[in-house]
Amino acid sequence: MSKATVTAVTTIGFLHPGKMGASLAACATGAAERLWASAGRSPATATRAVTAGLVDVGSLDELCRRSDVIVSICPPSAADGVAAEVAATGFGGVYIDANAVSPATAQRVEARFGDRYIDGGVIGPPAERPGTTRLYLAGPQAAGLAPLWAGSALDVRALSATADGAPASTLKMAYAAWTKGSNALLLAVNALASQAGALDALRAEWELSQPGLRERSDRVAAGSGPKAWRFEGEMAEIAATMAAAGLPEGFHRGAEELYHRLAGFKDHPAPTLAEILATLAESSPGAPGDAG
Amino acid sequence: MSKATVTAVTTIGFLHPGKMGASLAACATGAAERLWASAGRSPATATRAVTAGLVDVGSLDELCRRSDVIVSICPPSAADGVAAEVAATGFGGVYIDANAVSPATAQRVEARFGDRYIDGGVIGPPAERPGTTRLYLAGPQAAGLAPLWAGSALDVRALSATADGAPASTLKMAYAAWTKGSNALLLAVNALASQAGALDALRAEWELSQPGLRERSDRVAAGSGPKAWRFEGEMAEIAATMAAAGLPEGFHRGAEELYHRLAGFKDHPAPTLAEILATLAESSPGAPGDAG
Questions:
Q1: Do the chains contact at B195 and A245, CB–CB below 8 Å?
Q2: What domains appear along chain B, each with residue ranges and CATH number?
Q3: Does the CB of B288 have a partner CB in chain A at under 8 Å?
Q4: Looking at CA atoms only, how far is residue A200 from chain B in angstroms?
Q5: Tens digits of per-residue pLDDT, B84-109?
Q6: B13 - beta bridge partners?
Q7: In degrees rounded to 5, what are phi and psi of residue B274?
Q8: Which of the residues A68, A280, B110, B261 has an alpha carbon 20 to 30 A from that of A249?
Q9: Do B251 and A246 touch (CB under 8 A)?
Q10: How far apart are alpha carbons A25 and A63 in whole angstroms?
Q11: Does B254 touch chain A (CB under 8 A)?
């Protein structure tokens, strides 16, 4: 592949099509071929890959041999391992790491691919309709890759590369640092008032002077409770990112602890705020029957 | 004074009329007499007291001898000392502590006055027009005191007392835990993006998916920068309150550190976000010329 342009002959490979990855793959209709490798993957992943229109080439080696561009989208903790496996095949194309990783992790991946590395970050839900989801790409070749997704539901945006940073990964971290960090703070504040018997008063005061916070508290309980188990690790990555940037890590250490205590709501359908607050009270380090 | 009612003969004393205290005093038009004690206070305080319509009785002893009700509104760090001074005079009336103190501090003050203690908390700016400011009062006699401020710009609300808590103080803490804690988090997130060269991208993404955060960031920089020096201590009180409630203290330890770094903006007229972010970058523990 030319360094600066993507032509209709570009072949793109995806590692590994989870819900988000499959949506990025389904949207890459500017590529001549869209591939994945089924070796070692689950039937659910295979179903998603077929639905996204991906061609199975079997092994990782074959995927790397045939692809001009590889997109990695996997759990953050697996990102560098996946990159290492790809590099070990001798892959010579462009490697897009679209994972929610800290800039430190991004730089480890970059070291494996040099100027063929693209720092990526996705903001929004899996891209099923236009306007919901952005794929940010940074690096010398980022602008040339956008046509792979032209005309699809995915909005691809190129960021200027900086001398010493991973702007797409940092953007993703900063975005989640606010959304998931402030949601955790809001639950902690509700819990504090609740434990002093002042929650009704707080909610009434919010109605007067902070409109929307009452409703947001209920919405966060229902929406974030079931995902807390996976937010915990993301908060730890953000805390480390803050510390590496010389900023306070406390906000996200607090959020990490709060989500940790809510991990039991995994697969729970939309808990109420009262259920979340009861669990926070029970899981307090000083509570009877302390669970940790 | 009767324990349950306030009559037109009630005399109320104020310690010490700063901006907020003077506004509470000016609104207490349901009292027969409104007093203060000028001994040891500054000319600025005296001017505020006169403007609020307070009668100077000279000494603290005289104030305590003549008052049926005393309202304490002072810096949080002075709250328990002021209470100790009042108790030492043998004051036998009702003591309202309206300071932004932790429940632990509130309980120390309560121990000095027993069932003559009222836990209070003010939310909003100094009360100059109706609808902006609430004085929350909790304790057996709270409801009976509201008529002191009837018909004024100050909205007095009684909270149910709880067996082991200071609901008005906790309400004030919880309220500020969100407003000032989330503002600090927002500045930290802006700083993180800025240091990676991703701030413009973050602000553009916020325009798409988190409307209002861009404007809020600018507003917080201008509004909270000059007050950061006094928010630092309040964040420490809130962190301790969270910890005492068995909740994560990290959020407000982070906020405490962030405001600490911005203390130099005291008396600075409305700093820009760029000025705030430059100071956060310079004051990073790893920055050249580290200031702490």
A1: yes
A2: 11-159 (3.40.50.720), 170-282 (1.10.1040.10)
A3: no
A4: 10
A5: 999 999 999 999 999 988 888 999 99
A6: B35, B70
A7: -60, -40
A8: A280
A9: no
A10: 14
A11: yes
